[in-house]
Amino acid sequence: MSQNNLVRQNEISTNHKLNREKHENTFDQHANKNKSDVSLWTMKFSNFEKTVVAVSVVIILGLVIAQLGVKNSINGEQQHLQSFTNRVANLKNSNSNLQQEISELQNSGRLNKIAHKAGLSLRNNNVRNVNKWVQK
């Protein structure tokens, strides 16, 4: 009887193993089938999800267009700034040249020559230096 029980337990154990393997194989087949059936193109999206994606795309395109417009505007302003900078540099150069010309025209030697030609003379005893004193 113990031998008979042992054989019976062995058969039950074998049947359980076979059932378990069959069940696992069936589960694996369903899992693999579900993986292959689910793809991005076959999924159904709700109207809300479609609307969110469409609005997001429109916003992104709007931002890209706005960025290009801002870059174009910045480049234009940089060109204006460069032209004004060049103009300021030219005016400073012109002012420097005019200051040098003024200094040359105010040269005391030149003024004495012009006065001598006009019949004028400089007498140092007739010249007075006046200093303005400021009280604190």
UniProtKB/TrEMBL annotation:
Segments of skewed composition (Basic and acidic residues): 21-30
Residue stretches spanning the membrane: 51-70
Compositionally skewed regions (Polar residues) per UniProt: 1-16
Sections of the chain in a coiled coil: 81-108
GO cellular component: cell division site; plasma membrane
GO biological process per UniProt: FtsZ-dependent cytokinesis
Membrane topology per record: Single-pass type II membrane protein
InterPro entries linked to this entry: Cell_div_FtsL
Keyword tags: Cell cycle, Cell division, Cell membrane, Coiled coil, Membrane, Transmembrane, Transmembrane helix
Spans annotated as Disordered: 1-30
Highest taxon in the source lineage: Bacteria
Localization: Cell membrane
Function: Essential cell division protein.
HAMAP family from the UniProt entry: FtsL (MF_00910)
Similarity section: Belongs to the FtsL family.
Official protein name in the record: Cell division protein FtsL
Protein encoded by which gene: ftsL
